[in-house]
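Hi R.,

Here's the chain you asked about this morning:
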Amino acid sequence: MKSMKAEFGLRVVRWRSSTSGCAWQVFYKDGSVARLIESPYPRGPMSCAVFLHEVGHHAIGFKTYRPRCREEYHAWRWSFEKMLELDFNLTEAVRRRRDEALHYAVAKAARRGLKRLPVELVPFVEPRSRDLEPLPALLEPPCNPVLAATMKADHASSGSGGGSPEDGL
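And the predicted structure, written out as tokens:
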């Protein structure tokens, strides 16, 4: 947590008791920028995911991705990649929380008149039934090359499929 705060120059304004968070920037007249977050203190998988999601907003950069629902997607993606990289427990509940948050973001954008839905958000148009398993942690190959190589090596060593073209490898 301290390394994340130092790496991105963040200040935690408040540790929340709920599992919600907020990230924002303040630009001062002298040109300096304060990078701020409110988040639950990262103790377990859910609070850790929310904390990293808020850090992710600063890591990817505000307004890098438009519309706003796409920024939310990439902040969640950054959070999940970081959790996998650090070998943190990415539970089904955390994945379900991401699914619900992104469905809410897509629905909110639609209510506000979204013209075109980014392709990466298509899986979140409809609410996901609680009877179904949540979507996989990463819906696309990871951006982090070290994580991508690790995941590729893990998949190859797991013995799944034998490597024939029919296996999709």
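The mean pLDDT is 90.

Let me know if you need anything else.
M.
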